[in-house]
Amino acid sequence: MTKNWQQEKEISNAFWLTLISKIALKLPRWSVRLLLHPITFFFLLTAPKKRQASRHYLTRSLRKKPKIWHIYKHFFWFSSVLLDRIYFFTNKQALFNVSFSNREKVILSLKQNSAQFFISGHYGSSEALKSCYSSQVYTIKPVIKLEHNQAIVNLFKTLNSEFYENVIPYKGLETTFEIYETLKDGISVALLADRPIENAPTLSVNFLGDQILLPEGIFEMILRFPFPTNIFFSQYQGGNRYRVNYIPLSIDKGDTALILAQKFADMLAQQCLNSPYNWFNFYTYWVEPNHNETFAQEGRDRKKK
């Protein structure tokens, strides 16, 4: 990753987010979705770096050179998922048809141990996960870097006054202790593990044919903390349909954080091949070969100091 994702400008826009949210809460969902087409077309025209990132990714996941309509569809699915987050945050899950894999196993596991890791990436809509346990007594707190997606965070705080109460703000190393205390209190924690954190150690793994960097701290936690780990992917399937796939992460004797990170990357890659338009990392994602070792070691060097 030649440029840290935290330095990238958000693809979303405060004006469009506020406008679409106000409309979404007053009009039927199908009519609001019609507005997504001109908005998507606007970003397609005005975001050349995002187009380039989409094209680079789709070349790998589609296994062919993407046309402009492939990139448009990629942007449109992102817009659709972002719109649906408004409905999920305002407890309107009834609007959606959400199916699950291994749901009964997850519910049974939560009954036995309510404190678990739920690990995913910027793939589909993690908010669809709420539909699995919304009628249950379980709580899953996501870890969020609040200052990066400020426009989205402010919007969701407006939509749901309990937003800050239900998340763990990322604050660097001290967040590790807060995550552990949350788990000790019997509350599950959700993390997105497909982006490195600035100035933090990273692991270099293979993803769709080339190297990427993943945050070492997340995989060290799930390796060392005595709590079950689930990998989940909330796949958008068009219309009002979502599919939440659960994959229990098996931790074998002798596994390292690097091995776990590669297992996660392999699972994410398979999801991207199965449904390419669900992956939402619109920045230069893969490590340039001549910078691979430098970037991967950078965080560890800071840690030693």
Automatic annotation (TrEMBL):
Q: Which GO terms describe its molecular function?
A: acyltransferase activity
Query: Which one GO biological process term can you cite for this protein?
Result: carbohydrate derivative biosynthetic process
State if Nucleus is listed as a keyword. Answer: no
Q: Does the keyword tRNA-binding apply?
A: no
Residues annotated as coiled-coil are none
- Intracellular or extracellular location(s): Cell inner membrane
- PANTHER family the UniProt entry points to: LIPID A BIOSYNTHESIS LAUROYL ACYLTRANSFERASE (PTHR30606), LIPID A BIOSYNTHESIS LAUROYLTRANSFERASE (PTHR30606:SF9)
The molecule here is called Lipid A biosynthesis lauroyl acyltransferase
The species this protein belongs to is hydrothermal vent metagenome
Kindly list the organism's lineage. unclassified sequences, metagenomes, ecological metagenomes
